[in-house]
Design a protein that fits this description.
372 residues, alpha+beta, Beta Polymerase, domain 2, two-stranded antiparallel sheet, 17 helices, 53% helix, disordered C terminus
Length: 372
Amino acid sequence: MMDDDLIAAALRGESPEWPPKSDPATVVERAVYHGVASLILAKAPQWPGAVMTALRSRAIAQAMWEMRHRMIVTQLLSGLTAAGVRTVILKGTALAYDLYPDPAARSRGDTDLLIAPADLERARAVLRDMGYVCAFGLDQIDDGHLQEPWTVTTADGQSHDIDLHWQVLNAATLGPVITLSDAMDNTQPLPRLCLHAQAMPRVQTLLHAAAHRATHVTSPYFVGGAIHYGGDRLIWLCDIDLLARAFTASEWDDLCKIAAERGVGPVCLEGLQSARVHLGTPVPLGVIDRLTALPAGPATTYLTGSRQVGRAWQDLGAKRGLIAKSEFILARIFPPEPFLRAKYPDLSQRPLPLLYLRRMIDFFRSRGSSSK
C-alpha cells in the first residue's frame, strides 16, 4: 500500500516528499492504525500542515494517557509487590520504558502483566481491592484461559486496562516457547517506570514480539474498536527494530540457540526480515544464515501454517486430562458474552445466538496476512 510505504519511509528517517495522490486523511488514519503518530512527528517529515497537526493531536492525547496510565500501573505494581506477587511486564509497556526514548511514543491501550499461576488468587484480590473489575466476570473464567482482562475507572471517568497473564504466550501449544522461568529469570529492570517494574530479558522479548505478530495473522486484534487481522502493524516492527539495535553479540547467539531449541527459527526470521525491509533494521548476516537453516518446529507450524481450526486442535492436544479438554472445547464454542460483544461491536446490541453464529463463521474462515 502506497500510504504504508510513505509512513515506513518516514520512520526510516528518509523525509519522503508528499506524493501528490496521497489523501491526508487516509495517511493519518493509517498512521494511527500502525500506532506510529508520535514516531513520525519525531522524524519531522515535510508533510502537509494538516497531516502534521492531526498527528500532533494524536501524540498529545497519547502523552496525556501515558502520564495517567504510568501512575496507575505504578500503584498496581506496588500493591502486588506488597502482597508478595511477583510480576513481569510484557509487550508494549515493557518496551516503552526500556527502549523507546519517550515511553508515550509506544502507543498501546493497556498493560500486560505476567504472574505465576500460584499467585493468581492473590493478584485478583489486589486488583479487586484497588477498584479493578474483571471484564468477563470471574465466574466466566475457566482453566482453558491463560489471561484475563481487568479495568479500573479513574475519578475523571477514564478507563485503564490491565491484561493479567499466567503464561507468556496465550495458547496452550505455545507454552514451551517462552516458559515462566524464561520470563522471570534474569529480568530487565525498568527504572523509568518505577522501582518494582521488571521486564523479560531482551532475547525473550524479541522472541515474544516475533511470535505475537505471527499469532495475529489468524487471531484478531483491535485498533480503535475495529477488528484487524495480520502481522503488518509498523509499531510491532518498531519494537523488533529497537530490540535488534540494542542486542549484543551474545544476545544474538542466545536468540539463535533458543529459536533452534523451541522450533521457532522461521518465526524469528520472518519478523526480523520484515523489520529489515520496512525499517532498515540491522541484523548480522550470520544470524540470518543461522535462522534460515533452522527447520520449522510445531510452534512455527502453529503460528504460520495453521488456520484457527488447526490452532484450536493443537491447543486441545496440549491440554492434559478429559476435564481440561472438555473445558477448553466449551470455552471455544461458548466464550463469555462480554468477550463476544467486545469482539463484534457492530453486533453488540444483537441477540447472543447471532454473535455465536458469527463466531463460528469466523472460526472456519481462512485469514490472509493483511488487516481487515
